Amino acid sequence: MKYIPKNIERVIEEFSKMPGIGPKSAERLTFYLLKKTESDIRNIGDTISKLKEGIKYCEICKNLTTETKCAICEDSSRNQSTICIVEDVLDLIALEKANEYKGAYHVLHGLISPVEGIGPDELTITDLVDRVQNNDIKEVIIGLNPSMEGEATASYIMRFIKPLNVRVTRIARGIPVGGDLEYADSQTLKRALEGRLEY
User: Fold this and answer.
1) 16-29 pLDDT tens trace
2) Within the chain, what is the greatest distance between any pair of CA atoms?
3) For residue range 62-83, what is the model confidence (pLDDT) as tens digits?
4) What's 44-76 look like in SS3?
5) Where in the chain are the domains?
6) CATH number for the domain formed by residue range(s) 77-193
7) What's 168's DSSP letter?
8) N or C end of the chain: which has fewer CB within 10 A?
C-alpha cells in the first residue's frame, strides 16, 4: 500500500493477523485509533503490553487466573463433583454467559489434531484423569465441539475416564434456536434426533 504511511500499514498488518479480523476490519480499527489522542493510544498500548502480567493456569482446572486457583474453583457454592471439559477458555466463558451450569470445568487448551502436530501430551488430559481419579467426581461432561478433532479428543479421554465408574455425558448437539430444518446437514439432523428429549 504505497498510498499510506508505513507505520499505518504496519498496524493494519498486525490487526489483520488476529483471528476474525479481515483487512477491512483491520483498516477500520487502525483509522479509529488515528482519531484518538496520543494519551488514549498510549493507554491502549500500555494495557496490551501488561496483558500477560501475572497470568497463569489454575492448579485445578487450568483456567486462566492471577491466583493459584481460579474464581470458579474457589467458589464453594458450585458443584465441584461435576466437571465440564472444554477446549479453551473462550468455551468456558460462553458456558458461563449462559448462566445455567453451576459445576466445575477442565480446560484442555486445544484438541488432538495430528495434522497440526497436537497430540494428547500437549493438552491437559493427564491432569484431568488425575483429578477424576483422586477426587470425588460424580459426572464428567464432554463439552467439546462436534468436529473431527473434538470427537477424536472425546474418544481418547473416554478411554481413561470410563473405567473410573464416573457418569460421562456430553452436551446436546443439533438444530440451533432459530435454525431451519431444511438448511441443516444430515449429521446435524442425525444428532438432533439422537439427542431428543421428552416434551
Assistant:
1) 999 999 999 999 99
2) 66
3) 999 999 999 999 999 999 999 9
4) HHHHHHCCCCCCEECCCCCCEECCCCCHHHHCC
5) 6-49, 77-193
6) 3.40.1360.10
7) E
8) C
